[in-house]
Amino acid sequence: MSILVIAEHDNTSLRPATLNTVSAAVVLGGEIDLLVAGGDCQGAADEAATVAGVSRVLMADDPALTDGLAENLAPLIESIARDYSHVLAPATTYGKNLLPRVAALLDVQQISDISAIESPDTFVRPIYAGNALATVRSLDAVKLITVRSTAFDAAGQASAAPIEMVSGSQEAGLSKFIGEELTRSERPELTTADIIVSGGRGMQSSENFEMLESLADKLGAAVGASRAAVDAGYVPNDYQVGQTGKVVAPDLYIAVGISGAIQHLAGMKDSKIIVAINKDEEAPIFQVADYGWVADLFEAIPQLEEALDSPSP
Amino acid sequence: MKVLVPIKRVIDANIKVRVKADESGVELNNVKMAMNPFCEIAVEEAIRLRESGHAEEVIVVTVGPAQSQETLRTALAMGADRAILVEADPAPEPLAVAKLLKAVVEKETPGLVLLGKQAIDGDNNQTGQMLSGLLGWSIGTFASHLEVDDAAVRVTREVDGGLENIELVPPAIVTVDLRLNEPRYASLPNIMKAKKKPLDMLTPETLGVDVSPRLETIRVIDPPARAAGARVTSAQELVDKLRNEAKVI
Ligand SMILES: Cc1cc2nc3c(=O)[nH]c(=O)nc-3n(C[C@H](O)[C@H](O)[C@H](O)COP(=O)(O)OP(=O)(O)OC[C@H]3O[C@@H](n4cnc5c(N)ncnc54)[C@H](O)[C@@H]3O)c2cc1C
Ligand SMILES: Nc1ncnc2c1ncn2[C@@H]1O[C@H](COP(=O)(O)O)[C@@H](O)[C@H]1O
Question: Which of A185, A198, B41, B107 is disulfide-compatible with A224, CB 3.0–4.6 A?
Fold first, then answer.
């Protein structure tokens, strides 16, 4: 068996979900090649070479690949994928955008968002917002898979693997990257944070979210949100946790003013410890919370900050 | 320009699904079905493009069992002009759906295909991307803003880091995200009018597409249950528990 892992990166460094995807490849077993396709991407390729488990880095460096446009990337991946038994990408917006286009070119039915591997052709994946787990066997010659990063640990570091150049990319002339508005934050990233403080509609405004940010800073936590909080404009879209947002599984998830709709639970119910703070004792979030506190959040959050400052008796 | 909108009939988003005892799938009998919420957003956007003069006709298409006609009628009641059912029971996998949609695109020659980013049953998030690959068309996934003119389709995409702006050469495929618009409700007069709008029936055979599955479902089970834990009544108690019992801070 030989496995191609598609690295997600910003040309300078790897995005963290790449490391979890490599771990899934290690579970499959076999030689692992890590593809870094980008423009001026030597930095990312050098980092890729130090990922434990990787036999070889394939580097495709071309201006057409700088912005990660699927129309330009897919033909390149199609041209090398046939040499592999498996092609894996992270189930991030990057991987979700790209891999199905490759799958169509290869005439393969992709398996999305796997959370476990039973054998080289059999995989477990959540369906219906995680309300059911399906085990599926692929009959395709090449398996194309996106990997749920919270289900696999991040790969560690090892001594450098060789980097080989691959070519064959072309500007398809179909789409153009214009620009991006990325959310800048000093806090840990949502998908890799050990602790997350998340707010919902109960926060009532973006100003009030500052309370959660201050609590998060005290805990070294990331800040997340429900769809309702994002829709209301309290926080940017990339804060959304859930079925159609980010899937997270931190050691501690604190849900504040979030009711616990199934679509929200889909994104956080694999967290190790869940705390819910909600003034409605009937809120469904309490059914999954290890510690539930029925309280008005506007009183509870300042009290919690104060309690964190004082040592436990 | 014509806009084609592929839509899917799924279990209503507000229903908690039940796994069948024989582990073959989830219970679909006597369960409330509805249009996939992302598809509603796609239909709404297509109608707005027609209302603002950027499109002449909105065609909705679904691949699925005969009952999917109800979902098509809902889209017609929202304002779509005509509908196509490609009858297949159960609905095939995304690759086969994309192949059927490609055949429909070749018949209808739309300038834009608007799909949902994800169907909330299988959570696959594949069909639009696959269709773009099969057609060799440009693609903008996870759209939260869309502008269309003759020369270009401009898409704002919701990505993990924030927002990304891209420009597509038409004809284009766009998959829509939650914040693109707020779908309208169909009014009663429009529901009545929709009954008279054209609905064509096709089959995978007439379109010449092989829809045999590539995945075999071995089993479908409940996820591990999470039990409710303890209640706390003060900040100090919560902090003590997190420090000394759960040991997570
Ligand atoms: C197709 C689809 C996809 C979706 N995807 C997602 C997704 O990815 N992520 C997601 O989160 N949702 C998603 N949703 C939306 C989901 O169904 C819920 O509508 C949403 O999660 C509700 O957000 P909320 O809990 O913040 O708001 P609400 O349900 O309104 O809950 C607010 C809570 O705050 C509490 N509260 C109010 N004031 C206070 C106070 N002062 N102190 C303490 N508590 C207070 C209330 O008791 C209530 O429980 C999706 C829905 C659909 C249809
Ligand atoms: N059976 C189907 N018939 C028509 N459109 C579909 C079908 N399945 C998926 N789609 C379209 O593809 C989108 C994404 O679905 P999926 O790839 O299954 O998550 C949906 O929102 C629809 O727009």
Answer: A198
Instruction: Tell me the H-state helices in chain B.
Output: 37-51, 68-78, 94-108, 127-135, 188-194, 204-207, 235-240
Cis? peptide before B90, omega within 30° of 0: yes
Residue B101, judged by CB atoms within 10 A of its CB (0-12, 13-18, 19+), counts as buried
B32 interfaces chain A, CB cutoff of 8 Å: no
Using the beta-carbon criterion (under 8 Å), do B214 and A108 form an inter-chain contact?
Answer: yes
Instruction: Find the A299 Cα to ligand 1 centroid distance in Å.
Output: 20
Q: Which CA distances in Å does B199 have to A110, A165, B31, B82?
A: 31, 53, 25, 6
ipTM above 0.90, yes or no: yes
- Please tell me the distance between residue B18's alpha carbon and the centre of ligand 2 in angstroms: 22
Q: Report CA(A191)–ligand 2 centroid distance (Å).
A: 27
Peptide bond between residue B171 and the one before it cis (omega within 30 degrees of 0)? yes
Nearest to B124 among A112, A236, A310 (CB): A112
∠ CA B99-A130-B91 to the nearest 5 degrees? 25
Instruction: Mark yes or no for CB contact A237/B94 under 8 Å.
Output: no
A102 within 8 A of A72, measured Cβ to Cβ: no
Give pTM, 2 decimals. Answer: 0.97
pLDDT at A312: 62
Q: What is the DSSP-derived secondary structure letter of residue A166?
A: -
Segment A26-57, tens digit of pLDDT: 999 999 999 999 999 999 999 999 999 999 99
In this structure, chain B runs to a length of: 249
Nearest to B158 by CA among B133, B131, B179, B174: B179
With contact defined as beta carbons under 8 Å apart, do B47 and B36 qualify? no
Yes or no, beta carbons of B126 and A112 under 8 Å apart: yes
Going by DSSP bridges, is the β-strand pair B153-159/B162-168 parallel, antiparallel, or unpaired?
antiparallel
Cβ(A140)–Cβ(A108) below 8 Å: yes
Amino acid found at B10: V
Probe site for chain B from A79, A146, A217, A291 (most B CB atoms < 10 A): A291
A248 CB under 6 A from ligand 1?
A: no
> Per the CB < 8 Å rule, is A180 touching B161?
yes
Strands A273-278 and A163-165: unpaired
Task: Determine if ligand 1 sits within 6 Å of the CB of residue A146.
Answer: no
pLDDT at A168: 79
Report the Cα–Cα distance between both ends of chain A, in Å, rounded: 56
Distance CA(A33)–CA(A16), nearest Å, equals 17
